[in-house]
Amino acid sequence: MDGKIETLTATEAAELRRQLAHQLADLDAHLAVVGPQPAPPATLLTPEEAGKLAGVEAGWLVRYGRTHKSAWLRKLGHKTVRIDSAAFTRWLASRRPQ
Q: Which of 38, 39, 63, 72 has CB atoms 3.0–4.6 Å from 87's, for a disulfide?
C-alpha cells in the first residue's frame, strides 16, 4: 500500500479497515484503563447563591473566602468573584456537624 486510499484494491482496503478496527479497539481499551475522563467545567455560583446555601450573607462569605484564601473562591475580575460549587459544597459539609 502506497498511502493513497484511491489506489487501494478492495482486498487492501478491507485489510486496512481490519487493522484500523483493531487499533481503535486497543485505543478504547487503553482509555478505559488510563482513568476517567476529565471533569466537566466547574459550576460557579454567585456569592448570593452560595450565601443562601450556607445561611450567611454574601458579603460575609466573600470576606471569609478572601481572608482564608479559600479554594472555593474564584476571582474573575477586579470586583467580580464566584464560588466553585463543588469545592464550596465539600467545604460546607466539612464545617457542619455530622
A: 72
